[in-house]
Amino acid sequence: MYKLIKKCGNARRGEFKTPHGTIQTPVFMNVGTLGVIKGAVSSMDLKEIGCQVELSNTYHLHLRPGDQVIKKMGGLHKFMNWDRPILTDSGGFQVFSLAGMRKIEEEGVYFNSHIDGRRIFMGPEESMQIQSNIASTIAMAFDECIPIPSTKEYVEKSVARTVRWLERCKKEMDRLNSLPDTINKQQMLFGINQGATFDDIRIANAKEIVKMDLDGYAIGGLAVGETHEEMYNTIDTVVEYLPDNKPIYLMGVGTPSNILEAVDRGVDFFDCVLPARNGRHGHVFTKNGKINLMNAKYELDSDPIDEGCNCPACQHYSRAYIRHLFKAKEMLAMRLCVLHNLYFYNNMMKEIRDAIDGDYFSKYKESKLAQWSGKA
Ligand SMILES: [Zn+2]
Fold first, then answer.
1. How far apart are CA 215 and CA 248, in angstroms?
2. I need a labelling partner for 19 at 20 to 30 A (CA). Which of 51, 54, 110, 356 fits?
3. What pLDDT band is residue 70 in, cutting at 50, 70 and 90?
4. Active site residue 45
5. Among this protein's residues, is 271 annotated catalytic?
6. Dist CA 156 CA 268 (whole Å)
7. CA distances (Å), 204 to each of 152, 198, 236, in order?
């Protein structure tokens, strides 16, 4: 259940109660595709870097190790030793972006596994069953993530089908939550707004899915090739039609400045692979913007990645040492940079929450944007 505590402009400070604890929002969800953050980061590390919600991918866990294995091991919480909230995506995005030879029908999608090529079918019921076996806190509805650009005719047809899929998801989740051997009988369901960059389709779809009284609403199908202005415009358009008493999740976004802009427009939940992926390549976020540790100028730099940062990497190691680890292809290099970048994101969300609480969010946003672009 979502409780709006305070607003600062359109930015919202809230609390979302779940069976696995209360989430303070706005929040960044840390992406652990296979039940682990890539870069040798454990669930114990996640607690140390202030992670509130871990996000895992249904498609990937279905293929490896298999959701039946996870169910037999007592659910993903037990399997990966993480007792805080977990959100699982529906598998839709990966089916449409990773799998080969896909065929979309009213029932669902036929596709080939990207691991061994075997033919698999996934529809709304299958997605809900897999997510129920994983036993995540929040399940996402099965949807088609529409490529941008697409014709208006295609977007209309796809969105109408995704709404029919959402009705099937809700029905299937209600059924699964009532079964005696279901691990998390209080699993929550978020619906997903789609419509590419067509405002009228986005609005009609938002009105439609809000009627279903779901636990939360996501804005999907963004950060797939549209401009930042188009993305911000779509958020502005959609947020107006979503209820005040439910959390709003912007899927797959984004850079620190994207997050500040979206919080300013009323978004509560975020996820993105960017901080971990950047970290694995030695690209780290600092208060003065992103730097590349591979640059020669850091060879003799005894400063931490980011002066004043309280993450495990900055507390103990210098830029020069971490750069050396990268050059020597030591795994610790990736691990330290991923820990730093995730800490940077989680800490930024904490600062955002403090800024809304303290009524200075606009000032905070402006000063951060200026600092990151090197102007302050
Ligand atoms: Zn740090």
1. 10
2. 356
3. very high
4. no
5. yes
6. 27
7. 14, 10, 15
